[in-house]
What does this fold into?
Amino acid sequence: MIDNMCRTGLELSRSQERSPGENDQIFAPTYVVSSAQTPLATRFVRVIDGSTIEVQPIDDKSQPTGAPNFTVHMLGTAAPAPTECGGAESIANLKRLFRPNELVKVTAEPLLTTTKDKDGNTLAYVITGAGVTQDIGLRMVKEGFAAASYPQGQREPAVFAQYTSYAKGAVDQKDGIWANCPAPKA
It folds into this structure.
């Protein structure tokens, strides 16, 4: 399955086009995030897998809103399942990137026509930090712990080119999981 997810991002770095096919099922169309201009303030709860986290909505005073926690699949990424080659390493690396109860901005991509993946996770960018911020999904791709992936049939934002470039570099350099796991088929 990771071969299919990884191939998607690497093929994009070469052609920037994608045709419908088997990858349609990877990220099909729980909480709706408003738009890229208005990130939702949340608090990190836990890592679900190498590209999905659970967060708790918070108010402007960093207090829980009372709304239920929800899961976010980091847009632009696809990590191996926990039982696949590199899955455990991907999860461990994602855990390393978060502090307990860290404040997290969940930011939707306005170009998406769907807000959820096939598992019901919210599709959004996950941004941490105050002042100096970082896109956690992009960092996972750059460090070689996730592949670049974008929902099939969706218009890709310009920023996705950076994901595919980092994915190609990580595979070429055998960074992260690509040191011991089969490289995605190009």
About this structure: DSSP finds four helices and eight strands in the chain. The beta strands are 40-49, 52-57, 70-74, 76-78, 103-107, 122-128, 134-135, 147-149. Residues 2-15 form the longest helix (14 residues).
